[in-house]
Amino acid sequence: MQSSSDSNVFSTSSSSQTAPLPSSPIESTLPPATPSVAGTKRGIVPKRRFQKGTFVKRGENWVGMWRVDTLQHDGTVRREQRSRTFLGLSERAARAAFQPILDTVNAANHATPPVPKTSDTVSKAVAEWREHAASTLKPSTRRSAESHLRRHILPLLGECPLADLTVKKMQTFVTTLASGKRTAKTIENVLLTLSSILSSARKWGYKVPTVALSDLSLPRKTKARPRVYSASEMARIVSSADEPLGTICFVLGSTGMRIGEVLALRTEDLDFQCKLIHVRHSVFAGTLGTPKSEASMASLPMPLDLAVCLKAFLASKHYRQNTLGLLFANRRGRPFSANKLREKKLRPLLSSLGIPLAGFHAFRHGVATTLIDRGASITTVGAQLRHSDPRITLGLYAHVVPQSQRDAIEGLASAISSGQLLTQQEIAELAHKKSFVS
Length: 438
Known about the structure:
Layout: E1 10-14, E2 54-58, E3 61-71, E4 77-86, H1 91-108, H2 122-132, H3 139-157, H4 167-179, H5 184-203, H6 231-240, H7 245-255, H8 259-263, E5 270-271, E6 276-278, E7 282-284, E8 287-289, E9 299-301, H9 304-314, H10 338-353, H11 361-373, H12 378-385, H13 390-397, H14 403-418, H15 424-437
Antiparallel strand pairs: 1-4, 2-3, 3-4, 5-6, 6-9, 7-8
Helix pairs in contact: 2-5, 3-5, 6-7, 7-9, 7-11, 11-12, 12-13
């Protein structure tokens, strides 16, 4: 028979005997556990795990169960199961009445609830990005992003919850990359790839902290000078190369176009009447696509010598008719691979000419450098290279000293050295002072 105070609410039982509801602190539980010494027999080492209890229905009533460790007279520890039956209560009310018991047990054991595991990790965000967003990128951009994911992001952050990507976590990521001797530019590119993916995840409803590049301490950039072909080197390459490499290099050296844009040229892009080359496509990994940016789609002047060369190439046996209408097509009627052309044709030619090895992009740098050296303005060079902002051109080629600047400074130095800036009276006075001093 239950006592009158609780007969209508709950009853308590133990696996061996009836036990009252533990008070706080619970007398039956042990003090905080200490590490056990190997080789000693001290009974069960108590585990201070956070208890959620067991909640079951027996008959018409709900029963809550938990465990306590009791210290025996012989110094051993015995783990006992305790239970409480909640008479006449609904499941919701019984759980509410059971929770204070669990709170008391866990508080006495100094047990803290486990950190809930989340499935919203970086790997999950990457998987969704690959499914929904990656296909919208240009092939070259997607290839770079996949390289960043495979080599850096997923190995280091793949299992990290999105909510944990704080400034501190991101700084640790940057420091780890820097310790692996990655360049500052590589680290910045990896961060930009990660930022793009996290931005998409944020738009899709994931909770991701916002961390800007300015919040992180990045390695200092050391800007390397790009490899540049001089005008004479470009002329030697063009005159020595077999076809179609010779014409390809002539287009590169006369226009400053990117190699992918040249390999994607179609005969319909050549306007011999208006002397224009229309840049509309680009090739990457043998696949036709759009140029690098919207600003890259433009019409460039076609020099007279280049027009003569292109007409001669179209009339020669080296031009291959193809269904795509390409100006330069391989034996299968497809665009050439820039990598294969570079490795199998260009570099062997450079070695035979004694020119330091470089790639096709050195033509683009060579065009810009030569134009600036011959007095062209940064605006003019930027328009020819189709940079979206003149500051890009200035940042890339600020080190180039134009010939006009050299001539001007040479004239100034000569005038100072020869005394051309002095009047006859000043020359006479200086000569008099020199003779007096000597």
